[in-house]
């Protein structure tokens, strides 16, 4: 493969991962909208659209392996290709979590809403912020911005715990009739699962930020933080 062909294919690979990032972000934003507005049509559309994101992940693997095998890139080009493969994996997992949120939302839409848990909206906001920052830092290869994302993960963890505590209180509150108590528990459990999905998306946004630093600076931020 001639060098100019390599750079052309590398640019095509970047366009493919940018498309995947845009679709994953749209899926997550819509999952949050479906949950907040109890919109089962949006939730179903998220589930139906997940195949395209899976298809793009396979295409990224194919393009990346071709570049690695034929050109044997070095330095930043090598880090870019490896980083893209890692990021595509996290994007696919984020899309899967969005599907999980959508599936739980479909169940919740069939029943009356639970009592409001303020920490849930805060958890949605911080998760969306972290993912948006991760996508932007990758697009711009901005290691400085990427390094700001892991610090937000503690907030996401704290909001997740607040949601759990709030929903335990909801489940503990007495309701007239056995069936109503069981339904309240089922709705609360589904909402707790959604909060865990949000927390996982925050974690994977942190992963993407670490990959950006690896691409831009050749530094494995995860292992440095553990030293």
Explain what the structure shows:
- The model has no long low-confidence stretch (mean pLDDT 92).
- Helix content is 86%, strand content 0%.
- The protein has 227 residues and is mainly alpha-helical.
- The chain is elongated and about 75 Å long.
- The chain has helices at residues 3-37, 40-71, 75-109, 118-140, 143-146, 153-172, 178-217, 221-226.
- Helix 4 runs antiparallel to helix 6 (153-172) and helix 4 packs parallel to helix 7 (178-217).
- It is built from 8 helices and no strands.
- The chain has one domain (3-226): Up-down Bundle (Methane Monooxygenase Hydroxylase, Chain G, domain 1), CATH 1.20.58.
- The longest helix is centred in the last third of the chain and has 40 residues, at 178-217.
How do the helices and strands line up, and which of them pair or pack?
Blueprint: H1 3-37, H2 40-71, H3 75-109, H4 118-140, H5 143-146, H6 153-172, H7 178-217, H8 221-226
In a few lines, what is going on in this structure?
With 227 residues, the protein is an all-alpha fold. The protein has eight helices and no strands. α1 packs antiparallel against α4 and α3 runs antiparallel to α7 (178-217).
The assigned CATH architecture is: Up-down Bundle
Name the CATH class: Mainly Alpha
Note poorly predicted spans.
none
Helix and strand pattern: HHHHHHHH
Largest sheet: none
The CATH fourth-level homologous superfamily: Phosphate transport system protein phou homolog 2, domain 2
List its traits.
227 residues; mainly alpha; Methane Monooxygenase Hydroxylase, Chain G, domain 1; 86% helix
